[in-house]
Design goal:
575 residues, alpha/beta, 6-stranded mixed beta sheet, 18 helices, 46% helix
């Protein structure tokens, strides 16, 4: 059981432009904990991470942590500049950073020049940043969206290393598969407050749903009780008003009311008034102590894509397609095609050329050789990874560039459906979170009619409800989808075909992402077994030779070195 508290947070508060993002937050982080920090875009997750790291000061509150604590903080990849990597590589005193980068699939990083660092893909940036964090030998890890852009190899490495890491870990992530594999506790940020759940993401969703249902049930019971009390008070008020009227009636002649009759109704009215006041007071006391709030409706993000009628069957075809950067071939002599209505996922290691191919299809890059044919009759939308290309000083409507009333009204409706409130729409884009900026770019796409959607990491920075709704909507889109994504669930749910980047080739495969990765794992296991068998046979042969060789013989030392080398290789394979 974890009892050793590493960090204690008390009364944490932080506001931006009169909006309180964190409101009196308290929590402890214990040794070895694996915590997932979740919440909607803009709820303050990155703000909390920056405060814990010391990059940002809170308005109020105390963070109690030991002086010796070294925090390894992975910012979102958009925060990293070329100079960050250049400086880190320049001062790397040992080979650990290079070894970690190599394990992540980045070869010969120590020889990378300024030009190579200036053309890093999102995944390569992330892997270098992860290498820097791990090489710093931290005691506590804060990782902000560590799976954005990362490929299958990098994800497997990250999951394995997190299991080996001894210190506590705080993960900000919207990747359901990753959270299920790594965390044992969930912190949920909502409306400036924090709630705690035990278990992984799936357990959190189940517990949260049960809590919402229980709260909704209790709320309905209390509302019925309030309704009954209000009816009783209304009845008492009605009787009191009648008693007041009767107490003032005089009448004439034989109908003249005796004084005692009027006094009786005055007393009765006063008594009824007191009963109303008493019931009102009891109701107010009950609500002040035990008021049950109505559960907030879960944000329903609605996406609607429109597309033109059917086009010709084949819309894209590559013949002997080649793309080479100076000294760096991405893919060579590749052949593939895309038909109308297909949903195709692009998968491969970071830096293999997925985003480059998308830019070629969109007309932003040219091929080095070969042919890339695209149907001229299709209308194509492109959602890029970069959410930093929006004008930071303009508000959302200004950035979208709509001027006529009808378009502005439609844009406001779409933005509201995407979960952006009116106050956010009127803010400068520079103060919006990355997820909110992604929604702005989606709104731009939704305002137009398209046949083909090219999506480069479309779920990056989107919160979980938005991801799930986007998946459902894209599943109904009747046009063609080409997407790069490292979100396992998203790819598996959406795509039934793949373009795989492997061994400097782009190959079309008629299978889902789940089938592809399962086959890859099976092949990896088979290759490992085969490699182990070869090593064990070599070890047996060397042991035989050693037993027959005199220890003074020069050959004995060579055999002994070879034996040690083989044992090391065997250990690496077994790990």
């Amino acid at each position: 059981m974890l009892t050793n508290t590493i960090i204690k947070v008390k009364g944490l508060e932080k506001s931006f432009e009169l909006k309180k993002v964190l409101d009196g937050i308290d929590f402890d982080i214990k040794a070895g904990e694996r915590i997932g920090l979740v919440g909607y875009n803009g709820t303050g997750k990155t703000t909390l991470a920056n405060i814990l790291f010391g990059k940002l000061a809170p308005d109020k509150g105390v963070i109690d942590k030991p002086d010796y604590l070294r925090i390894g903080y992975l910012s979102q990849s958009i925060d990293y500049e070329v100079n960050d990597f250049k400086n880190s590589l320049a001062v790397a005193s040992d080979h650990e950073l290079y070894q970690i980068a190599s394990q992540l699939g980045l070869r010969k990083v120590n020889k990378w020049e300024q030009q190579r660092l200036a053309h890093l893909s999102g995944g390569e940036k992330l892997k270098l940043a992860l290498s820097m964090v791990w090489a710093s030998k931290p005691d506590f890890l804060i990782l902000d969206e560590p799976t954005n852009h990362i490929d299958y190899q990098g994800l497997q490495w990250l999951v394995k290393e997190l299991k080996k890491f001894n210190g506590p870990v705080l993960l900000i992530s919207h990747d359901r598969h990753f959270l299920n594999q790594t965390v044992t506790r969930i912190f949920e940020l909502d409306n400036g407050r924090i709630k705690f759940f035990n278990g992984n993401y799936s357990a959190y969703k189940e517990d949260k749903q049960k809590q919402i249902e229980a709260q909704s049930h209790q709320y309905q019971i209390q509302q019925r009780q309030i309704e009954n009390i209000e009816k009783q008070m209304q009845q008492l008020k009605s009787w009191s008003e009648k008693a007041h009227r009767d107490s003032t009636k005089k009448g004439n002649g034989p109908t003249k009311r005796p004084e005692g009759f009027k006094e009786y109704h005055r007393v009765k009215a006063k008594k009824l008034d007191n009963q109303v006041k008493s019931k009102m007071k009891r109701l107010e006391n009950e609500l002040s102590k035990n008021k049950i709030e109505k559960p907030e409706d879960e944000v329903k993000v609605r996406f609607e894509f429109e597309n033109h009628g059917k086009r010709g069957k084949r819309i894209l075809e590559a013949k002997q397609l080649t793309k080479v950067f100076p000294g760096r071939p991405l893919f060579l002599s590749s052949n593939f095609y895309v038909n109308h209505g297909e949903r195709i996922g692009l998968v491969g290691a970071n830096g293999c050329g997925k985003t480059t191919l998308i830019k070629m299809i969109h007309g932003e890059e040219t091929s080095s050789d070969g042919e890339l044919w695209r149907s001229e009759s299709i209308k194509m939308a492109y959602l890029s990874q970069d959410v930093n290309d929006l004008p930071a000083d303009k508000n959302v409507l200004e950035a979208l560039g709509f001027t006529d009333r009808e378009r502005i009204y439609k844009a406001r409706t779409i933005l509201a459906n995407l979960g952006l409130k009116e106050t956010q729409i009127l803010k400068p884009i520079g103060v919006l979170s990355l997820g909110e900026r992604t929604r702005v770019k989606l709104a731009d796409i939704l305002m137009k009619d398209y046949d083909v959607l090219i999506l480069d990491e479309p779920t990056n920075h989107l919160d979980l409800p938005s991801r799930e709704q986007l998946e459902n909507t894209l599943a109904e889109f009747s046009g063609t989808i080409l997407t790069v994504s490292h979100d396992y669930y998203f790819l598996t749910k959406l795509c039934n075909r793949l373009l795989v980047f492997e061994n400097q080739k782009v190959t079309r495969l008629e299978m889902t992402a789940e089938e592809y990765f399962n086959n890859k794992q099976a092949n990896s296991r088979d290759n490992k077994k085969e490699a182990l068998m070869v090593i064990e046979n070599k070890i047996t042969a060397i042991l035989g030779e050693l037993s027959l060789t005199d220890s003074k013989d020069p050959k004995y030392a060579e055999l002994d070195l070879e034996f040690a080398k083989l044992l090391k290789e065997k250990k690496q394979l077994l790990s």
